Amino acid sequence: MNWDDLRVFLAVARAEGLSGAAPRLRLDPATAGRRIARLEQSLGAVLFARSPQGYTLTEAGQRLLPRAEAAEAALAEGLEAGDGAGRLSGTIRIGAPDGCANYLLPQVCAAIGAVHPDLDIQILALPRVVNLSRREADLAITVSAPATQRLSAERLSDYRLSLAASTDWLARHGTPESPEALKGARMIGYIPDMIFDAELDYLAAFGVTRVPMASNAVSVQLNLARAGAGLAIVHDFALPAAPGLVRVLPDQVRLTRTFWLVTHAGPRDARLDRFTTLLREGMRTEIARLEALVG
């Protein structure tokens, strides 16, 4: 059994199939399938149950998985120790809600990439929770801590949200006199049945039951507000990127939420630990900088 075969095993286990694993391995699916068959033959055990829906780990495969992951971590740590320049390399994928992915991660990751030019950083922006258990990403930023012990979470940073509208909309419709007035106002928000985390249900606290202008994406909501479509709850850190929007009732409508940094539980390679430290520091600094711009 060699590392190259274990690498193929890990990719197929994480993608739950040959087609999903092949691009990351830079192999065609047929070659990946032959490598899995070779590994199974050398071990004398069937590692995957094959079906039209994909590849599922058997009991033997589940027993091999933590050993393969430990070998992966040890190899990465050895390569990191041998890097005389101390630069990070390889590929790291971050999953994040689209507000964070659009308005925070580009600046943070650009700064990290400038210092570590051999590192490939991938930002997976999704209007849902990134599934680390299925290896969609190496780490994730979420708005709630996960409930499973298979993942590890740490509090990353609080962030603020405010009510905002375009100056044009306010000139035409006037400024609401109190939070109670939002019940009858033209609101912008999430598509109600696509709110994937209770922490994102901002409008429920104000008794708003109808959202006439809605999107599952924060960036679309922000642009709807800029276009004069109504009032929206927006991230303070996004306001510097949205000229023409102003905060409304800033002393009365002020929400605070928390970003969590989520990783796989258990041993982690030194390279990912170093990247996580840089990400943590960069995120906290960038949130503080942007929020200071809007007061």
Supply the CATH architecture of the largest domain: 3-Layer(aba) Sandwich
CATH superfamily of the largest domain: Periplasmic binding protein-like II
Helicity level: 25-40%
Return Rg in Å.
23 Å
Q: What about the largest sheet? A: 9 strands, mixed
Judging from the principal axes of the Cα atoms, what is the shape?
Answer: elongated
- Number of separate strands: 11
Write the CATH fold name of the largest domain: D-Maltodextrin-Binding Protein, domain 2
InterPro entries: LysR-type_TF_proteobact-type, LysR_HTH_N, LysR_subst-bd, WH-like_DNA-bd_sf, WH_DNA-bd_sf
Family: Belongs to the LysR transcriptional regulatory family.
Keywords: DNA-binding, Transcription, Transcription regulation
GO molecular function: DNA-binding transcription factor activity; sequence-specific DNA binding
What does this entry look like structurally?
The chain has 295 residues and is of the alpha/beta class. The chain folds into 3 domains: 3-81, Winged helix-like DNA-binding domain superfamily/Winged helix DNA-binding domain (Arc Repressor Mutant, subunit A, Orthogonal Bundle), CATH 1.10.10.10; 90-157 and 258-294, Periplasmic binding protein-like II (D-Maltodextrin-Binding Protein, domain 2, 3-Layer(aba) Sandwich), CATH 3.40.190.10; 159-256, D-Maltodextrin-Binding Protein, domain 2, CATH 3.40.190. It contains 9 helices and 11 strands. Strands 3, 4, 5, 6, 7, 8, 9, 10 and 11 form a 9-stranded mixed sheet that branches. One of its GO terms (molecular function) is sequence-specific DNA binding.
